[in-house]
Amino acid sequence: MGASATRVVLADFTRIEGVEAAAIVSKDGFLIDMVSSGEISVDPDSLAAMITTLYGASLRLGEELNLGDLDIVILEYKNNYVLVEDVGEALVAILASRRAILGRVRYELKKQKDRIRSVL
After folding, report:
1. Going from the N-terminus, what domains does the chain have, and what CATH number goes with each?
2. Cα distance between residue 89 and residue 16, in whole Å
3. H/E element holding 98?
4. What 3-state class would DSSP assign to 115?
5. H or E element: which one contains 28?
6. Residue 91 near residue 55, CB atoms below 8 Å
7. Would you give per-residue pLDDT tens digits along the chain (120 residues)?
8. Which residues contact 21 (CB under 8 A, 6 or more apart)?
9. Which of 3, 17, 56, 107 could make a disulfide contact with 7, Cβ separation 3.0–4.6 Å?
10. d(Cα 112, Cα 46) in Å, to the nearest integer?
11. Regarding beta strands 73-76 and 80-86, do their DSSP bridges make them parallel or antiparallel, or are they unpaired?
């Protein structure tokens, strides 16, 4: 049996230098699929719940401050990045080390948005 369509799309993200994990999360906090490069250890169910909470809080902040539509959430930590983007029916989360080129990861996320939507 071949890999699922979501797994194939997510695996493409982990081929980008520095990307350690890519996940598709439902907007109600459940993991749809996740691929990890093995460099990061994360509980997928906890990640899904936290990503949904983070995205919801970011939406509310934008609404409260009249900032306009939310484009992407990017968190920068000492050693890692977390990017979260709405793809319609779900959210895509990318976890990357600081060796990743943030612009490249963001570009690929935007470029693959329609492809992700098509596999959901």
Report:
1. 5-119 (3.30.450.30)
2. 24
3. none
4. helix
5. none
6. yes
7. 346 899 999 999 999 999 999 999 999 999 999 999 876 778 889 999 999 999 999 999 999 999 999 999 999 999 999 999 999 999 999 999 999 999 999 999 999 999 999 998
8. 14, 34, 35, 36, 37, 40, 42, 47, 93, 94, 95
9. 3
10. 25
11. antiparallel
pTM higher than 0.85 for the full model?
Answer: yes
Point out which residues pair with 86 in neighbouring strands: 91
Give every strand in the sheet of 31-36, ordered side by side: 31-36, 19-26, 90-97, 80-86, 73-76
* Furthest C-alpha separation in the chain: 49
